[in-house]
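Chapter review. Work through the record for NAD(P)H dehydrogenase (quinone) before attempting the end-of-chapter questions.
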Amino acid sequence: MAAAIPVIKVAALSGSLRKASFNSGLIRSAIGLSKESVTGVQIEHIDISQLPLLNTDLIVNGTYPTVVEAFRQQILNADSVLFASPENNYSLTAPLKNAIDWASLAPNCWGDKAAAVVSAGGGFGGGRSQYHLRQIGVYLDLHFINKPEFFLNVFQPPQSLMMMET
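Structure tokens for NAD(P)H dehydrogenase (quinone):
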């Protein structure tokens, strides 16, 4: 009898809320590629668009708002995290930082997880947001894959990156 192959659960977060986001397209591509050619990896695109802005007044008697608690559980249940991080003003986007902050409150949901980051867009391809995200990861005990790095300045995105989720 063959042993069951363990499944690595990856929580994938896009820092862009746009429906036609190239960064969300990178996540969709990662999901598709993993289903086609990688055994034992399950990538789940986690929607961060409904998270309220971080406000600890919303935590009542130690209970997070329902949408926040559901998000935190998705991060806790994941073995690793894939961030698709666009770049705004040399940094990561407000929605992504907000999600990171909600899951960092005690108990820290990010602790000791492997993480990777991809980006699309901008003159530097999102590289500065990646560096900033890695800096944040140090405090959160996220273990980013730091190399290899690859930056491609100009490309014509395949249609699959531009298609919106249905």
